């Protein structure tokens, strides 16, 4: 039996994120710190700071303290949204996706996360 918290079938790649950006019901969820989300702080290994355009922010630390009902208030009803989580390197977002799946959401992890996205100059980034 596969553990849904670590199942690589729940991972998505850059191509899928790019293709689905702006799709109704598809939410890109940034689970990094507020500073990382706004671009005010960044890992020295990343060539750019910022976030994936249109990403919704919910810090993993905050997510871990929310009930399923509170998550629904923040992100919408589980039946109406599909989430892809990302962070800096895919580890925090993997935990976030597992938490969201346990709360009844269709949630995947963008394992390459910002570390990968920031390296491709053809991909837009937002700050602020």
Overview of the molecule:
This protein has 128 residues and is of the alpha/beta class. It has one domain: Oxidized Rhodanese, domain 1, CATH 3.40.250.10. Helices cover 32% and strands 15% of the residues. Strands 1-5-4-2-3 form a 5-stranded parallel sheet. The model is unreliable at 1-7 (pLDDT under 50).
How would you sum up this structure in a few lines?
This protein is α/β, with parallel strands linked by helices. The chain has one domain (14-87, 102-117): Oxidized Rhodanese, domain 1, CATH 3.40.250. It has helices spanning 14-20, 34-38, 60-63, 68-75, 91-102, 113-117; strands at 11-12, 26-30, 56-57, 82-86, 106-110.
Topology:
Elements: E1 11-12, H1 14-20, E2 26-30, H2 34-38, E3 56-57, H3 60-63, H4 68-75, E4 82-86, H5 91-102, E5 106-110, H6 113-117
Keywords:
128 residues; alpha/beta; Oxidized Rhodanese, domain 1; five-stranded parallel sheet; 5 strands; disordered N terminus
């Amino acid at each position: 039996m596969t553990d849904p918290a670590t199942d690589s079938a729940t991972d998505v790649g850059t191509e899928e994120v790019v293709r689905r950006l702006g799709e109704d019901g598809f939410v890109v969820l940034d689970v990094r710190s507020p500073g990382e989300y706004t671009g005010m702080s960044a890992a020295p290994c990343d060539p750019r700071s910022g976030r994936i355009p249109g990403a919704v922010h919910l810090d993993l630390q905050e997510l871990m303290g929310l009930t399923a009902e509170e998550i629904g208030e923040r992100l919408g009803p589980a039946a109406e949204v599909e989430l892809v989580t990302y962070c800096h390197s895919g580890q925090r977002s993997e935990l976030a996706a597992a938490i969201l799946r346990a709360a009844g959401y269709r949630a995947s992890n963008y394992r390459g996360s910002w570390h990968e996205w920031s390296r491709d100059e053809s991909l837009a980034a937002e700050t602020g």
